[in-house]
Amino acid sequence: MAYDEELAERIRDLLLGEPELGEQKMFGGLAFLLDGNMAVCASREGGILVRIDPADREHLLATTAAFPTVMGGRTMKGFLRVDADDLRADEQLAAWVGRGRTYARALPAKRRRPANGGFLAM
Fold first, then answer.
1. Which residues have C-beta within 8 Å of that of residue 34, sequence separation ≥ 6?
2. How many CB atoms lie within 10 A of CB 58?
3. In what helix (H) or strand (E) does residue 121 lie, and over which residues does it extend?
4. C-alpha 24: how far from its chain's center?
5. CA triplet 75, 81, 86: central angle to 5 degrees?
């Protein structure tokens, strides 16, 4: 299954105007990167993958509809999954995109964006 293009467009709209915003096919979906760090990804499994502070993981699992991200049999502590059903309202998606944005912005920049629109390693 390919990622949900409508969901990707909603994410894109929420991140519109962010400096150093990039998009990259990743994890079988479409990832949105800020300064080279993934913030959120429209997942091929439906819904989103969102980058979070690992220190917030247990609290978010206990208080939201998010669930652990498992890749290759390994639980990814800095990512959570959220089903599309839990992202129908714009406010729901905006809250998760905001979490991903906040954490990605807290990380050191990985790449800078040259004038041609691609990415270069710093």
1. 15, 18, 20, 21, 22, 101, 104, 105
2. 10
3. strand 120-121
4. 11
5. 155
- Cα separations (Å) of 29 from 3, 69, 88? 5, 14, 19
- Assigned token pair, 93: 């998606």
Could you read off the pLDDT tens digit of each residue along the chain, which spans 122 residues? 689 999 999 999 999 999 999 999 998 899 999 999 999 999 999 999 999 999 999 999 999 999 999 989 999 999 999 999 999 999 999 999 999 999 999 999 985 555 555 554 43
| Segments of 10-99 assigned E as strands | 21-26, 29-34, 37-42, 48-51, 67-71, 74-82
